[in-house]
Specification:
globular; single chain; 3-stranded antiparallel β-sheet; binds zinc ion; 3 strands
């Protein structure tokens, strides 16, 4: 996966080490922007979609 802001690679092992699960937010280590880790539970064949989105408002 890549940071949507700076396109720096973000590895799954980093997410595991930081104990970040689906729905959690964290700061990109490269640009410092706040990101949310999205895990879309599989709808078929157990596939899982993972993505990162930029968090615009921490108060939502
Ligand atoms: Zn970044």
């Amino acid at each position: 996966m890549y940071c949507p802001a700076c396109e720096s690679g973000i590895s799954r092992s980093f997410l595991r080490e930081e104990d970040i699960d689906g729905g959690d937010t964290f700061e990109c280590q490269s640009c410092g922007i706040l990101l949310r880790y999205i895990v879309d539970e599989g709808t078929y064949l157990g596939a899982q979609e993972e993505s990162l989105e930029i968090v615009d408002d921490e108060d939502e």
